[in-house]
Specification:
about 600 residues; alpha/beta; Rossmann fold; 6-stranded mixed beta sheet; 20 helices; about 40% helix
């Protein structure tokens, strides 16, 4: 016998006084459903979830919750007035004797239930709201970006808890790995309508692309038909006026259908300019240590970061990732050891606290008021990578409309604030990007574009993120900060780090005498731990070089094709010179990489 659905929405419409957010929307959530709710920033995901929770009343339609079903909603910005501590808030509504559930969840999510709500950060409040929902264990959980402000360990704990729950849940998240691991169905909000597919997020992008491909084909056919009918109307209507009025009406209907088709929202027109090159060495640290109030953050850490490196920093919240970034940037001094910065560095910094954004300023003033972007004598223009551009035009490139230009920053969603900060950052030339939690609140399409930009960026990237998929896509080196001052360098992204760490732990168990060596920083192991005549660092460099050589060969072929264009030198001498310089540089880099590979191969062979 089929079980009754947990929740049903029927013919829901909502406008907020303007264009429809939803129109005639209907959906059903069944017991045990594990649903990804996806869509572009601003498409209405959070609004739909609030309708499902009963917190937003639609203009029309019906919300039905099956009797006996408890629906729990994780608030993005929980109200905690009347509660002394985060634990008091999280335990409110629980039966006496069930408060232990909050303590169990708090341990997994890593927040202090005794923390005073008046001094708790936004991230701590969100974790308390998530703990409240998990402790209440409703039959249907509505989770709006639950992984924001969680570190990777807490995300893994939450992922495991949701895998084991019998409750149904609907999940909004930008974290691809989290969505792939948990979901079995997908709700996709696209231009005020909601589509459902009975596969998890793993199949979403292929489904989305197929839907868009079919739409483009139908639109093309409709355009051809309108063109054909319009030609007939011009050429033959006067001779057949009475017989063909129906065909004229049909043409009007075709045009109405075409004009009624809603254009898909494009992706932000983001761009990065690496500007003048930095020196080959970006930063080198040797034997640095750092402690705060007796807590060791770093102990005898060394690394050399070179131009073009992509370095990720991972570890639990509070372990010292941002502190290490500040030391590498020269903004803080270590207690011991040396820090040497390279030459000609032009850093651009994405701050996870969004401190560069004044919540009381308008978007317009936030850009025009930036000294680095100001155009003298032009109140409505800003400098974008050295060229003047109208402020509204630039905002539109990041998917803001003209009305938002005069709105305060505080009115923006988390994703919109992230886009505005990226707009400020990308307007400036740089050769060193420092990205501290850039992925929070960005939708999947914007994350894809950001990843592509970082792939093509000629400068150096230092990245802090808890998004495992994004780390795998971007990072070539991972620094894992594991507490007690340990910071270990691994080749590759998150998955590579996990595999190497597991291998090292396995080796340590089978060879106890090697345990001490496996804990050392690979940078410091040169000349100590040899594998086939190579140090740990040299071994990973040898494994990395074939992909480096392959990439350089592809870039050289692309540049040679570009320079082979007829009349390029005559028409675009600056582009020709820039392409020639880039070709020479990459040819030198290829020769150096091939020579390095041969030397390491010879050394490995003994």
């Amino acid at each position: 016998m089929a079980r009754a659905p947990l929740l049903q929405l029927t013919d829901i419409s909502l406008t907020f006084g303007g264009d429809p957010v939803f129109d005639d929307l209907s959906l059903v959530v069944q017991p045990g459903d594990r649903v990804a709710l996806v869509g572009r920033n601003g498409s209405g995901k959070s609004t739909l979830m609030k309708i499902m929770a009963g917190l937003v009343e639609p203009d029309k339609g019906e919300r039905i919750v099956t009797p006996g079903t408890r629906v729990g909603y994780m608030e993005q910005e929980p109200t905690m007035e009347g509660f002394a501590t985060l634990g008091d808030y999280a335990a409110s509504g629980l039966d006496i004797g069930d408060e232990w559930r909050v303590l169990a969840v708090a341990e997994g999510l890593k927040f202090d239930p005794s923390r005073d709500v008046n001094v708790a950060s936004g991230g701590e409040r969100r974790r308390a709201a998530l703990a409240k929902l998990m402790a209440e264990a409703p039959e249907l959980m509505l989770l709006d970006e639950p992984t924001n402000h969680l570190d990777i360990e807490a995300i893994a704990w939450l992922e495991n808890e949701l895998k084991e729950t019998r409750a149904g849940f609907v999940l909004i998240s930008h974290d691809r790995a989290f969505l792939r691991a948990l979901t079995r169905a997908t709700l996709w909000i696209d231009r005020s309508s909601v589509r459902r597919q009975e596969t998890g997020f793993e199949g979403f992008e292929a489904w989305r692309d197929k839907v868009w491909e079919d739409e483009d084909m139908q639109r093309h056919k409709l355009d051809r038909k309108i063109k054909s009918e319009a030609r007939w109307a011009v050429e033959g209507i006067s001779a057949r006026r009475k017989r063909n009025q129906g065909r004229v009406r049909a043409l009007k209907e075709l045009r109405a259908e075409r004009s009624g088709q809603i254009k898909r929202q494009g992706t932000a027109a983001m761009a990065l300019d690496s500007g003048p090159k930095s020196g080959k060495k970006v930063v080198e640290v040797e034997g640095i240590s750092k402690a705060y109030d007796g807590k060791v953050i770093l102990r005898d850490f060394s690394i050399k970061i070179q131009r073009g490196d992509r370095v990720a920093f991972v570890g639990p919240n509070g372990v010292g990732k941002t502190t290490l970034l500040k030391i590498l940037m020269g903004q803080e001094q270590p207690d011991s050891g040396t820090v040497s910065l390279g030459t000609n560095l032009l850093p651009a910094i994405f701050d996870q606290t969004r401190a560069q954004l004044d919540p009381d300023m308008t978007l317009w003033d936030s850009l025009t008021g930036d000294p680095d972007m100001r155009v003298s004598g032009k109140a409505d223009q800003i400098l974008v990578r050295g060229h003047p551009k109208h402020v509204v035009g630039y905002l539109k490139e990041f998917l803001f409309d003209e009305r938002q230009a005069r709105a305060p920053v505080r009115s923006l969603s988390g994703g919109e604030k992230a886009r505005l900060l990226l707009a400020k950052l990308m307007a400036k030339e740089s050769n060193l990007l420092v990205l501290d939690e850039p992925t929070n609140d960005l939708d999947i399409e914007t994350l894809d574009l950001l990843q592509e930009l970082l792939d093509d960026y000629d400068g150096t990237v230092l990245l802090v993120s808890h998004d495992r998929d994004f780390l795998d896509r971007v990072a070539a080196t991972t620094i894992a900060m594991e507490g007690d001052g340990r910071a270990t360098v691994y080749a590759g992204g998150w998955s590579d780090y996990q595999a190497q760490r597991a291998e090292a732990q396995s080796d340590a168990k089978s060879k106890p005498s090697a345990a001490k060596v496996s804990q050392e920083n690979p940078v410091n192991q040169a000349g100590k731990s040899k594998v086939n005549g190579l140090s740990f660092t040299e071994k990973h460099r040898l494994e990395e070089l074939p992909s480096v050589i392959e990439r350089l060969e592809a870039e050289i072929a692309k540049l040679e094709g570009f320079l082979a264009q007829p009349d390029l030198y005559a028409k675009e001498p600056m582009k020709f010179q820039k392409g020639t310089d880039a070709l020479i540089e990459r040819q030198k880099a290829l020769a150096a990489a091939e020579e390095e590979w041969m030397q390491l191969e010879e050394k490995a062979g003994g």
